[in-house]
Structure formats: structure tokens, C-alpha cells
Amino acid sequence: MKARPDNARRNILPSTGIRIPVAEMESFIRDLFKSAGMSDDRATHMGVTLTANDLRCVYSHGTSQACAYVPQIREGKANPNPEVSVETESPATAVVDGDGGLGYFAAHRGTEVAIKKALEAGSATVTTRNHFHFGAAGIYSRMALPHDCIGLALSSHRYRPKPDATVMSASGGSPMSIAIPTGDQPPLVLDMSASFLRHEDELMGMFPTVFFKALGLGSVFQVLGGILAGIWNEGFEYSGQGEYAAPHQGAFISVFDIKRFADVATFKAEMDRYIGEARAAKPIPGQDRADLAGGVEWEWERDNREQGVPVAPENEKRLSELAEEMKVDAPFDRFERSRF
Fold first, then answer.
1. What is the CATH number of the domain that holds 172?
2. Phi, psi of 322 (to 5 degrees)
3. Pairing verdict, β 123-131 and 249-257
């Protein structure tokens, strides 16, 4: 896919910027979180996870998020070092509590639990609660791939539909990801929001079917990743008072062991055939290549791990300002700006 104009919120390879070695970018982001009071292991997790999203050019959920998370932690609005715990469990289910921290830790632990249980029981589902933003849903669905499992992850946050707005206010912008393993082809990884277009009256009138489908997806995600996950339970309600009084997100994570349904080698061969044939088809008009979900991100991650993390000027500026504020050395001035 061709590079596009620089914009940290657009999930595409920028046209210009600098490249930072992966380990150096991970260490820099780690140090930012440590400067806000996060432990080394927690901060390292954030550095690796956010950098991995930048490698895939998922900038909306990559290192730029440090500019939101670090102040949130520094100002006492999120627990920097949560004690994540499994509250209840059965052979194929569990409920994980995030202790008022970022959702990355609860969701990661929940996915690990779901994978272990799925390998034992065939499939498993875990919900998480009492935490903040968990990042890109694809972080967790992808965790199932090395285990020859299918991963599903979705999330929602606490909010109420607005009586003075359209019913679309009941849909939110909740994310969902499904990751399916392959052999030699890029894995099939759908990672998307329930929102497709801005909630504007004119657009709703022009594309009602799009909004009906978004409303359907968003409301289901709100139930599974929110109501079922327990984010409205007493004790987790948003009050805006107290040190960690507003952990307002939850997640729903499922894992399916492929060998319980099909021969793994045969399944992967069929996935390779299917994806290979799709990639040989004509691209969507206006695009220069044909790919299924996750294909271009897989290529970007592979190439960027070798060449370095691409940092667009906008993201460099934001991270540099945060580094100066937190008294952390930023690596950017040691590398040359160029076109990608």
C-alpha cells in the first residue's frame, strides 16, 4: 500500500519521518511510563505493546497513546501498578479484575487465561472489568495465533445513551478483533471499531444501512464487553471522586482451539489457499493492492522490525514534548528525517 500524508491518527505508513530501532523505541516508551511511577515490568509491557502497534502502522493505538496514558497515571487518575486478579473461574470461563489500572494488564492476563483454558477445554471466554482503556483489540486476538487458536476480543466503556441525541448514541465506538491463523499467508486479523462514519444527520440520511449495522454491532459490544463484563457493578461506577474512582472499561475475550474442530494442517492449508486467491484478485477501486484484513499490517510489521519503527513528524513532536515534560531523553535527534 502506498504511503500517505503524515498523520498520527491515520493508520497508514507515513510519507516522511524517521526510523527508530525497535528496542530503542520500546525502551523510550518504557522510560516514559516509569517516570510516571509505573514499575519496570509494567512499563516494559507498555513499551513493547505500543511499539508493536506502531510497527503495524496502527498509530491510533500505538506510542502516541503514551501522551494520554502517562498524564493519566501521573495525575493519579489510574493505578500505575494494579494487582490484576482472577475473581471467579470455571473450566472454560473466568472474570478478571483490573484493579483500576490501564486495561492492557487485565486484558493480557485475561487472554493468557483464556488460551490456557481453551487448550484444555476446546474453547474459553474471559471477561475483564475495573480498568481503563485496553488499547487495540487486535493486541489480544493475535495472542491466540501462536497456539493454533482463533482469538476474539472486544471492549466497551461505561456510558449512557443520550436522550437528546439519536439512537446512535447507544452504539458507542467499541472495538472488536478476530484473529485466525494461517500457514504461509498473512493471518486473517479483523480489527475494527463499531463506528464507520461520523454521527451526522446528513450522513445518516444518505447511508442508513451503514448506521443500522454500526448500531447493531455497537450495542452488542456494549453488552458483551460492558454489561456482561460487569463495568456497571457496584464499586466500579464512574464517580469522578477518589484516586482510582473511574475505571470505566471492560472486555470480552474468547479463544477457540482449532484442533477441536478441524485438522490444524488442513485448516491452515485451506486458509492459505483462500487468502492467496483473495490477494490475487483485483484491488478495491482506488487501492493499489488486494488484501484481506490484517494483510498489510502483517507486511508493515515484518518490514518495520527490520528497518526501524516509522515515526511521523506529528508523533515525534507529541512524544518529544511529553519526554521534555517528564525529563526523559528522547531518541529522535539521533536519526535523520527522510521519505519512506
1. 3.30.1370.60
2. -65, -40
3. antiparallel
Instruction: Say how far residue 154 (Cα) sits from the centre of its chain.
Output: 9
**Structural domain boundaries enclosing 124:** 87-266
CA–CA separation, 324 and 307 (whole Å): 26
DSSP state of 4: B
Residues 148 and 235 in one domain: yes
d(CA 146, CA 321): 37
255 in the same domain as 123: yes
Is residue 271 one of the residues assigned to a domain?
Answer: no
| Together in a domain, 70 and 127 | no
Q: Is the residue at 276 inside a domain?
A: no
- pLDDT, tens digit (0-9, with 9 covering 90-100), for 29-67: 999 999 999 999 999 999 999 999 999 999 999 999 999
pLDDT of residue 338: 86
In order of 84, 93, 255, the CA distances from 116 in angstroms are 17, 11, 9
Q: How many CB atoms lie within 10 A of CB 174?
A: 25
**Per-residue model confidence as pLDDT tens digits over 223-241:** 999 999 999 887 766 555 4
Look at the chain and report how many structural domains it folds into: 2
Looking at the structure, tell me whether residues 142 and 59 fall in a common domain. Answer: no
Order of strands, edge to edge, in the sheet holding 16-20?
309-311, 16-20, 338-339
* Rounded (10°) angle between helices 313-326 and 66-74: 20
